[in-house]
Amino acid sequence: MNMGNARLFLVVGVTVVALGAVATGGKAASAPFMVTSSSFTDGGMLTTKNAADDPMRVCGGENVSPALAWSNAPEGVSHWVGYNIPVNVTGFAEGEITKGSKNFVGGKGTRDNALYIGPCPPTGDSPHHYVFTVVATELEPASLKPGMTRDEVYAAIKGHTLGGATIVGRFAR
């Protein structure tokens, strides 16, 4: 599969953060495309720090997004969340997608949010799963308008995906 024209999208739980790229004619990486986190292991527990700080739902968290990194993306990829991630960005520091940064513009989450909102499952439930996914596509960054919802991003990338990687964090209160 020629992945030289790849673009990336990051889908975080139900909050969409889209990633894109500029083609330079690269080839597929020999190692697998991966998403990792220094904040939690794949399938591991997120911390209260990562939970929502919504006083109306009494979540008890600090709403700090976990650190995320991706590696072995197709060559020639420049990244963006929402849009416009610089080519040298291969992840986000802890708290970066909570506060925003010059490295991305957020899409529109299910709570009309452009930034990370941490988990807040019902007290006493078994741990809920929160999926962080990076998808490589062949779309041009300009083809995706700012403020797109998860469903709009999925519709836009349908038939244009080249590969993806996922990490899962769990959380309970």
Q: What is the straight-line distance between the termini? A: 43 Å
CATH top level assignment: Alpha Beta
Rounded to an integer in angstroms, the radius of gyration calculated over CA atoms is: 16 Å
Q: CATH-wise, what's the superfamily?
A: PEBP-like
Strand count, sense and barrel status of the largest sheet are: 5 strands, mixed
Q: Classify the fold: give the CATH topology.
A: Phosphatidylethanolamine-binding Protein
- Got a strand count? 8
SS-based class? mainly beta
The H-and-E topology, N to C, reads as: EEEEEEHEHE
Helix content: under 10%
List segments where confidence is low: pLDDT < 50 over at least 5 consecutive residues. 1-7, 13-29
Second CATH tier, the architecture: Alpha-Beta Complex
Count of discrete structural domains: 1
Offer a quick outline of the entry.
The chain has 173 residues and is mostly beta strands. The chain is built from two helices and eight strands, in the order ββββββαβαβ. The protein has a five-stranded mixed beta sheet with strand order 2-1-7-8-4, with helices on one face.
Task: Give a description of the structure.
This protein is mainly β and 173 residues long. It has helices at residues 96-99, 150-157, and strands spanning 7-12, 15-17, 34-36, 44-45, 68-71, 91-92, 128-137, 161-171. The strands form two sheets. A five-stranded mixed sheet has the order 2-1-7-8-4, covered by helices on one side. A three-stranded antiparallel sheet has the order 3-5-6, with no helix packed on it. Strand 1 and strand 2 (15-17) form a beta hairpin. The longest helix is centred in the C-terminal third of the chain and has 8 residues, at 150-157. It is globular, with a radius of gyration of 16 Å.
